[in-house]
Amino acid sequence: MWMQKKLAVMPQAEQALPGRSTPLPVTVLHYVLGTRITPPFPQSMEMALVGMGCFWGVEKLFWAIPGVYSTAAGYAGGFTPNPTYEEVCTGKTGHNEVVRVVFDPRRVSYDDLLRIFWESHDPTQDMQQGNDVGTQYRSGIYVSGDDQRQAALASRDAFARALATAGYGAITTEIIDAPAFYYAEDYHQAYLAKNPDGYCPNHSCGIPYKSPVSAASVKT
C-alpha cells in the first residue's frame, strides 16, 4: 500500500480536495465470484459496509464467506466526491478504505459479518492498523437502518468487554449511518486474487467475538 507518511487527523470539509463529478470506471463483474459488484443486485440481498485497515485483505476475508454475493473495495466517510487512491492517501479527502459486502441474509447473518469484522483487525488503534497510519485506515461500521445500527452497537459493547478483559484499550471504531460509497480503481478490486503475493497484514487481536445475539437467545 501507500507507504509515505500521511495525515492522521480528519480534515474539515472546506479543507478537502475537490474531487470530480465522474465516478472512476470499474469492471461490473467480481473477479473471483463472477457476480455483479455494481447494482442492480438480486432483490433478496442486503449490504454491509466496513472499514478495518487495508481494503485488499479485508475484501479477501469477506468474499470467501458462504452467502456473500459480492464484495467491492471503495472509499467512504469523507468529503471528496469520486476520489482517487492517491488523493485518499494524502489524508485530505477524509475517506476511509472500505469494503462493501452484498450478502444473502438467508445464508449468512449480519452478525456473522460483524464477527469477521471484530476478529480480523484491532479496533483499538485510532487512525491506523499496524504500520498503516492515516485516516483511511480507521475502524468503521457504516450502517443501513436501525437493525444494523442496533446490531453494530451491541456487538461493539460485547467485544469491548472481551478486549478489556484481555487488557486492551478502548474501541475507537466509528459507527455511523452509511455515507456515499465510491468504488476504488479497478486494479484494487479483488486485488489479492489478481496479486496473490500482495501485501496482506493481519492485525487481529486474537480475541474471539461472542455474539450478543446468541447470548440473548440462550437467556430466553
List the helices and strands and how they pair.
Layout: E1 46-52, H1 55-63, E2 68-76, H2 85-89, E3 96-103, H3 110-119, E4 128-129, E5 132-133, E6 139-143, H4 145-165, E7 174-177, E8 182-183, H5 191-194, H6 212-219
Parallel strand pairs: 6-7
Antiparallel strand pairs: 1-3, 1-6, 2-3, 2-8, 4-5
Helix pairs in contact: 3-4
Written overview of the protein:
The protein is of the alpha+beta class and 220 residues long. The chain has a single domain (15-198), classed as Peptide methionine sulphoxide reductase MsrA (Peptide Methionine Sulfoxide Reductase, Chain A, 2-Layer Sandwich), CATH 3.30.1060.10. The chain is built from 6 helices and 8 strands; from the N terminus they run βαβαβαβββαββαα. The protein has helices at residues 55-63, 85-89, 110-119, 145-165, 191-194, 212-219, and strands at residues 46-52, 68-76, 96-103, 128-129, 132-133, 139-143, 174-177, 182-183. The protein has a 6-stranded mixed β-sheet, with helices on one face. A two-stranded antiparallel ribbon has the order 4-5. A hairpin with a 2-residue loop joins strand 4 (128-129) and strand 5. The longest helix is centred in the C-terminal third of the chain and has 21 residues, at 145-165.
